[in-house]
Amino acid sequence: MSGKTLQSNPSSSSYSAKVAAVFLFNLLVGVGILALPSAIAKAGVIAGILSLTTVSFMAFISVTFMIEVLATANAWRGTKTVVARKALVKGYPAQDDSVAQISQIKVKNDVFSAPLFEIEEKFEMGYMAELFLGTAGSTFFYAVLCLYLYGDLAIYAVSVATTLEKAVGTSHQISYYSFLWGFIMLIGPFCFFTFQKTTYLQLFTMVMRNSAMGLMILLTVLDIANGHYVPSDQLILWDTEKSKELIGITVFTFMCQHTIPSIILPLADKSKTLRVVLIDYIIVLLYCSIIVFSAVINKPASQISPLYSLNFSDHSVTVLAKFLSLYPVFTLSSNFPLICITLRNNLMTLFPISKDIFCRQQLFTLIALVPPVVIAIFIHDVGQLVALTGSFAGLAIMFVTPGLLVLYSRDKLDRTVPQWCQIHHHKSPFQHKAWVYLTLAFAAFVLITRIF
């Protein structure tokens, strides 16, 4: 995620549509879903239904924009390669200005052909922002991505410290800060190194997450069946003030736009890309709805913890109580160094200082690690952090950047190859400009509601 590297798609590392769906599902079902039950219980059932359906639909639109732009970036890269080869054949230098500025000239229709819109290289959002939005767009994206990752790290730190505090059951003033400090001392050193994602880590996280989520649903449904539920006339239907915070949490829950290139590239049959995304978003929407509304029906808003897994810390079955209450510790601790390293790499891209500076990597690691810890010291509410992260930096990554990317990439294609719609088989089904403007307007609406 650091930005400008391009990777080919070796067949040896490809996977099926089912595997791609699993990876995308695991990315979507993160810590944000644990903050939803409390937020929706306070904001109201109607607000929850509207927020979940609207944000998930708008998020799906923006993901289709990202898929289209990724294919367009591949086509642009392929076009430059084709023109460079023609220049070499004719005896012109490969690095001629006419080749470097291919995006500014008319190209022959045969240069843009269907194979060029195949997704064969991974272009991160930062690279695509620079390609289609220029230096200013690229800088904006890296800035909001860093802010989002700072928020992510703060959410993880608070979630782990709060979970351990609740599990141990000691006094807040001592234990929260002690656990936060212990967590940073234990996990922090791993942030100073590089990482390579392994299948075992992904499998461990996947099994832990889905086992915990499944158990929470099962235990809640059984509790409702035993007569423990909130009477319908006592359910909150709508609270305008709490609804503003809810939208930010929902945005955080459904965000995966910045990881789309990494998910799509290894997909063996990329014609199934749109189908995988659609099915995943439908399943995640249903998954969130079951968890959230079973929790809302089961207990009043005042009894639902901001971190939903903590609601089961007092369960009569001790093993289940400990597993569910400590679940965030296992999964978030394994991801914390990865996110911190990603943030460090993006900061190094955003602020390119000389590589000769002593301890450059260690310096940027500290810049990435210290601010989230400071935030976690002063803000202990996971729901508030999720809402703030989703409402500002999350909006820019989820809606603003994809909207601008698809708008400007289509404009470039319109000026070079007017018939590109006929050969671009990864184009979004939302082709009318009104969809782009709707996405940007929705982001503006969420931002305004959060500010005012």
TrEMBL record:
Major subcellular site: membrane
Domain Amino acid transporter transmembrane: 16-409
Keywords: Glycoprotein, Membrane, Transmembrane, Transmembrane helix
Domain of life assignment: Eukaryota
Membrane topology according to the record: Multi-pass membrane protein
Similarity annotation: Belongs to the TMEM104 family.
Name of the protein: Amino acid transporter transmembrane domain-containing protein
Native species: Porites lobata
